Amino acid sequence: MPPSVAADDAPSEQQDAPPPPPATEATRREPDTAPEQDRERAQTPKVKTENLSFWYDEGDTQALDDITMAIQPNEVTAFIGPSGCGKSTLLRCFNRMNDLVQGTQMEGRVLVDGEDIYQKADPIMVRRRVGMVFQKPNPFPKSIRQNILWGARINGFTGDEDALVERSLRQAAIWDEVNDRLDASAYGLSGGQQQRLCIARALAVRPDVILMDEPTSALDPQAAAKVEETITELKKRYTIVIVTHNMQQASRISDATAFMYLGWLVEMSHTEKLFTRPEHQRTEDYITGRFG
Amino acid sequence: MNPSESPQTTQNFDPRLSLVVLLTLLVDMAVDGYDWVSGDFLANYPSYQPEDSGILSAMVGSLWLIGLTAAFSVPVGVASAVYLEEYASDGWFRRLIQINIANLAGVPSVVYGILGLALFVRFAAMGNSLLAGALTMSLLILPVVIIATQEALRAVPRGMRENAYALGATRWQVIQGHLLPTAAPGILTGVILSLSRAIGETAPLIVIGALTSARFLPRGVMDNFSALPLQIFDWTSRPQSEFQGLAAAGIIVLMVALLLMNLSAILLRNYYEQYQPT
Predict the structure, then answer these.
(1) CB distance from A131 to chain B under 8 Å?
(2) Do A75 and A240 touch, CB atoms closer than 8 A?
């Protein structure tokens, strides 16, 4: 078991992860103190794919075709594109969730902090560094407190549990709404609250990167706005990748946007640039609502 | 048969009719056996004198048998189901096992008795012992336990699995932290229902050489034994009407045991469902 870690704010100090190799040290940031740097800076990307292709059904269905992209740390990166374009599949490549699906094939590389997560890393360790929030809020049938603690405990957390629960719930902007009923069942929360609880639960494992697969599509607009606020707040400490069907949402909360179509990465750039001056005709057609 | 007619037929059939038939049988049995059920009946060994007869040895034998059967079949059955659902990759081997389990659930119980006789009584030289009986019963109910557990595991929402894995859980942590607790009500129901089948089984016990009537209590797993259905079978095969009354009384005891088991299945399920999604 790893040594106990004090429950302060240090998401990059992954307790279970092996000591980072020197090359990636530069990408490890000091939370809170990291200055808002310019996107154009020469920086090692947090997540990178190189010629990534992916197939389902024993190679019969190709979902991703030769995708090379880089995701910068402490930014929100949005994946947009019509249904079936491969955005969710790509997202699930980042924490090896596709390993759970049978009959898939993959080519190319996915690097997190410069380390190929499919080469030597254990998928369990990858998922502890790269957390995920799903489309449907799906809390465990336990109390709010136990929901937060389960992930931390299986990761060997032995520090102050109360502090961890409070910190995670505060970061997910739900502490004020639930602090008086931490031992009540998570099923008593509203959909939006449940989704923020799921975000808090993912944060409690202290990941570096958080993947979100359409986190607001099952929520009403008010709850969605609250989750969006939370995401904007979270990017100070975490790298966030979000799949969304909602282009307004992508333009509101993301720093970079990738447009995908039929398994290809058509275009990826600054969100502002992609939505105002897209380089490709297909991107323009999609964001202006001509198809999709 | 015209398929469009069959639902109509089902609707015309009054379910109360089957209830009436069942009640008639129960009342008839209760009338026959009521006078024979007493403290002495529960505390005595069977005897040639009907008025001195009791079912102590059969009751104790059945308790031993069910306890041992549960001890063998639940761990093996649940583990097999977890393996098939969560570990085995979806290939011909898994499908072969799956088909076999489904077919084994439909094999007549007397066939299991013959298997138990050859395998446990003779080959493993366990003799006509409780151990041989319990192992035979375990084989008999194992397919049902496995299938019930598999179905309970399959009913766990996909999102729960994904969420647990996404938090960095190992497969075993997902299984013991979420899948088994969530599936527990279904598994328990399946286990208790299969055990109540085992408690009423007669044929395999006769084949493996259990006693139809015993005047001693088993003191260990290697002892010979009797069981409730065997004792009832023994009494029904005697011509005197007093023994028919004893058989009815034995059936009452067996029925009460079965009802208690099914009641506990319901109570356990309700207890666990308090923690399940509403």
Answers:
(1) yes
(2) yes
